[in-house]
Amino acid sequence: MSVIPARTPPVEGESLLSVIRRTTQAMGYESTSHIFKLISQAGAVPFWLNELQAGSVSERLADLLGMSVSDVMRHTIHHYSQSLVLADGESPAPLACDNKTRLRYFDPQTRVCPQCLSDSSNPFEKLIWSFRPATVCVDHGTLLLSRCSACSKPIPNARPRNAECRCGHRLDQLCVEQPDDELVRPIRMFLAALDTGQRMIPNASLPAAFFWLERMTRAVDQCAAWKQQLRNTWNLGSAYTDETISWLAAASIVERWPDGLFDFLDAYVHEPKYCHSATGLGRRLGRLHHHASELEGLGHSGPADAMREYLSQRYSAGHINGKVCLFHGLGSPLLADQDWMTRTLAAAELQVSVAAVSRLVTDGVLNGEIHRAGVNGKSIGVVARASLDRLKRQLDSSITSKEAATLLGIHRHRVAELTRNDVLKGAVRVKGSWHIPKQSLDDVLRLISDLQPIRRLRPPYLSLREATRRFGKRGFTLAVAIKLISDGLLPAKRGGEGNALAAVIVNADNIEQCRAEIQRMRDDRKGIPLNRLAQTLLPGRPTKERVLKKWIKTGLLNADRSRREWSVIRAEVERFRSTYCLAAEACQILGLHRRTLGTWETAGHLTPVYGPRVTPGAGFTLYQRSDVERLKDTRPSRRHPPAQSNNKNQSNQH
After folding, report:
1. Domain locations in the chain?
2. Measured on CA atoms in the order 470, 472, 476, 482, is the torsion positive or negative?
3. Which of 203, 252, 564, 633 is deepest in the core (most CB within 10 A)?
4. What is the CATH number of domain 540-654?
5. Minimal CA–CA distance to 223: which of 187, 201, 250, 198?
């Protein structure tokens, strides 16, 4: 068959569909269906012509266009087969993209760059625009668009003109989005590698690098919070779809290899997968470590090397052993110097129980992570080796509670009191005994030795032991006394020549002056009792203890109970005051009379959390502060009462 009379020479990098459209335009056809009918006589034509493979159909098309079959294939996705099809090192270079490669890397949905279309006198569609990782045009640094702004529909493939939508709108007039150059730079890198064959990841071929890029994109898809953070950091609008952000993030990870991979994995391992109590490595990393192992089996060890480095040095969500696929036959030498170790090994080195190691991690003495395992209260955890070595050095140079009691001249249970109240700073309870840093004990002894000596004990002076006995019910304990003395709030003197706490002398009148500070320290330690909190919880509005118990029962106020006594910590008091407000304060915020506020409450504009209308026997009304603030911005007009109130008044008049 002879060639088509009106032919247009293809442009380098042009897609085959674009060649057909420009040929249709040169022939004066209204659609591309005429050319498709001619080539369909040779066989089945693929739905997306850019994936046409060599065969009878491509030969027929080559005859129509006056080209060779190899020239036709240069404008299809098979032009990139040698850079994308994954194979081992011994296999010959592939000549065509298989179905998996097409689905991974190419999108049949049309994407265009409006500036590229407007810059050309004879607009054409580039083949690289269908490459999924290429989310932006590297020539102009603009986002590739897939929808027409006039009809809001996806740009169709079966349009007769490259620069014109089927609705007739010019595609070169679409509004463009220009991302930051930080996002365009990684795409320029792998597009240049796609053309030149240069490696992007050490010890990995270009197809292996693109395979890993696609796997990273799928992993990023699972981190919704991380993607939202990237959207905010990069200041990306709604034009950037979730898939676009995933490809941009994966490209940035590969560009900053391997640090970009390590930073992503730090967030990825804590993303919930399958179930929230998952502890296995497969449920932390998904299939990433298996994909890296598969690539290594094909002769591409770059991703596996990076994953091994991360797992052996930075992975803190669990323990790694030789059973992991990446460490088969290599585990012992690589895992010997891990930065993290299990709680069991840490407990063996410290000669304590596993529960004691968990407590040290919770208290911040050891750096580590504890994760729930299953639903039966079990857990797993790891400990940083550096923090364990630091604790062991501290224990070697510390003194026991028995030795500290001898130096301070007090009983051992008093030493425990000082450690629990952080007077002896940095103390650690290991092996059933407190281990106290020598420096913290020296600070207390130095405080005693620096006191001014006194020759004779006269009233109102009394020993520290006698003072704690007399004022102990008010919260004047040994730990409180030392804190007040060290802060300069309680003057003290020293009787005798020793540096023990028995030599400290205080003035009873000065203790009375520190009563408020002693009470504050006691409240910080034990919480505020309900009988006193009832007088101060609501400023200017004392209430009763039984009212606070109602709030505790309904969950408005959180409290701790010791036997029959209830207490509330100071942080909970501040939370309650910032969350709820009385009717008087609500009226002040809204600028209303109390009667008007009651009318709005009846109409349903404002619902109290506690009050006569919702709580039997309530003496006053308590509102959620956020509801009051919301009503302040969108409150009903004061001149026009709510309809429900009007109807009620009208019914009363009738």
Report:
1. 1-175, 179-338, 392-446, 451-523, 540-654
2. positive
3. 252
4. 1.10.1660
5. 250
